[in-house]
Amino acid sequence: MVNNAAIVNEGSGWQRVIAINLTAVIVGTKLAAAHMRKDKGGKGGRIVSTLSVAGLVQSHMTPVYCATKHGVRAYITGLCKDPTRPDQGIEYAMIAPDAVDTPMFQSVDSNRVLFWDELKDEMKRRMMKPQAVGEAFLQLLRSDVINGAILQVDIQGKTFRHMECVNDGVTFDPSKAF
Ligand SMILES: NC(=O)C1=CN([C@@H]2O[C@H](COP(=O)(O)OP(=O)(O)OC[C@H]3O[C@@H](n4cnc5c(N)ncnc54)[C@H](O)[C@@H]3O)[C@@H](O)[C@H]2O)C=CC1
Ligand SMILES: CC/C=C\C[C@H](O)[C@H](O)/C=C/C=C/C=C\C=C\C(=O)C/C=C\CCC(=O)O
Questions:
Q1: Whose CA is nearest to atom 1 of ligand 1?
Q2: Of 76, 119, 139, 164, which has the most beta carbons under 10 Å away?
């Protein structure tokens, strides 16, 4: 299961950002986990949530959006550490891209993102094609173990945060996760 839907809007209507980016992730994750958990008759599985660089840093550009992505990181990390999780057979991981050329990014303006006029050139310089995130996502899923992984994706490449990088530089070592 993938938690991917999100919006960005620091203007009026910011409460909806919290509803979609954070509350809905918690609701969806609870529903999915209840269905998936092996100790309650499910088959187990993986739940991957899309963060953002905004879930790793605090920015004056997108304080509400950052709060939701930090909230998702805290929530999912808590589930990663649940001592009953191995019996549930569920793994939790996150992917944290920098700016990506999608409708979300293309629709950003100074009503939705603060200080946009000053910062847009820098953000556009860092912008990746969506394929870069898709490839990173598949690479994450190819790992034998992903619980606790946060795969950061930017124009420099892919880096696991909170984990040791081994082999090809992006293989998750769960023993180094927390
Ligand atoms: N585009 C970017 O620069 C970056 C995006 N992200 C994250 O990537 C994920 C995907 O975003 P993008 O593809 O860029 O955005 P997008 O705007 O192109 O796609 C977002 C999708 O979420 C759906 N959605 C929005 N509100 C919904 C709701 N209430 N119910 C159901 N679906 C809803 C939209 O219909 C759309 O299909 C998001 O979690 C976003 O925060 C992370 C880092 C950078
Ligand atoms: C800015 C809006 C553009 C697109 C909206 C997207 O949804 C995207 O997910 C939002 C990104 C927001 C990013 C906000 C701030 C980013 C700040 C930095 O990258 C700061 C630089 C370095 C951080 C160093 C580090 O701790 O890794």
A1: 100
A2: 76
pLDDT in tens, 27-52: 999 999 999 999 999 999 999 999 99
pTM: 0.92
Q: Which domain holds residue 165?
A: 2-176
Residue 94 has pLDDT above 50, yes or no: yes
CATH, residue 51: 3.40.50.720
Of all protein residues, the one whose alpha carbon is nearest to atom 41 of ligand 1 is 6
The pick from 4, 15, 104 for probing ligand 1's pocket by mutation, whose C-beta has the most ligand atoms within 8 angstroms, reads 104
Number of Cβ within a 10 Å radius of residue 68: 27
Q: Which helix (H) or strand (E) holds 157?
A: strand 157-161
CA-CA distance, 143 to 94, in Å (whole number)?
Answer: 13
Task: Pick the atom of ligand 1 nearest to 5's CA.
Answer: 22
Q: Distance of CA 65 to CAs 20, 55, 90, 139, 143, Å? A: 10, 8, 27, 26, 29
Which atom of ligand 2 approaches the CA of 112 most closely?
Answer: 2
If one counts every other C-beta atom within 10 angstroms of the C-beta of residue 127, the result is: 15
